[in-house]
Amino acid sequence: MRAKISYAVTAAVLVVYFVLVGSRGVLLIKAGTLLTVTFGVAVLILPVIGIWFLWKNTQFVRRANALAAELDAEGGLPVDELKRLPSGRVDRDSADEVFARRKAETEAAPDDWRTWFRLAVAYHDARDTPRARKAMQRAIALHDGRPVGV
In the list 36, 67, 102, 120, which could disulfide-bond 28, CB 3.0-4.6 Å? Predict the structure, then answer.
């Protein structure tokens, strides 16, 4: 729940920022000179890119959460079996061991979105966020029946 609140607050702050930046772009365009119109258009591009990025990330999070709920209903969510350091952080060797098992499961069933979901969690636990995101995107695509790139 805490993560959802943090995400909502961050998204709201970004939307306010995009509105402020967009209003500055409009003001620059209204000034009417070649230079201010050029800068105004350039400034308006930033909020458009930002809103698109925010939308895509929100869609990703919603889809990943839907997969987690479905997997939980099936009783297939990965169990947290990781050893922790006294600081509470995940022990790297433990994360690597779990990752090796998840990777083997995924290689054995490459068309099953469930194995890709669990692999994404293992990547996340191993602090490899880019690969975790790609594995989760693949799980979402497989679940939705969309073609998956190699």
Answer: 36
The CA distance from 141 to 149, in Å, is: 9
Backbone angles phi, psi at 84, to 5 degrees: -120, 150
Orientation angle between helical segments 92-108 and 113-125, nearest 10 degrees = 160
For residue 149, the model assigns a pLDDT of 63
Q: Tell me how far apart the terminal alpha carbons of the chain are, to the nearest angstrom.
A: 34
90 backbone dihedrals φ, ψ, rounded to 5°: -70, 135
Q: How high is the pLDDT of residue 45? A: 94
Give the type of residue at 148.
V
Bridge partners of residue 84, in order along the sequence: 90
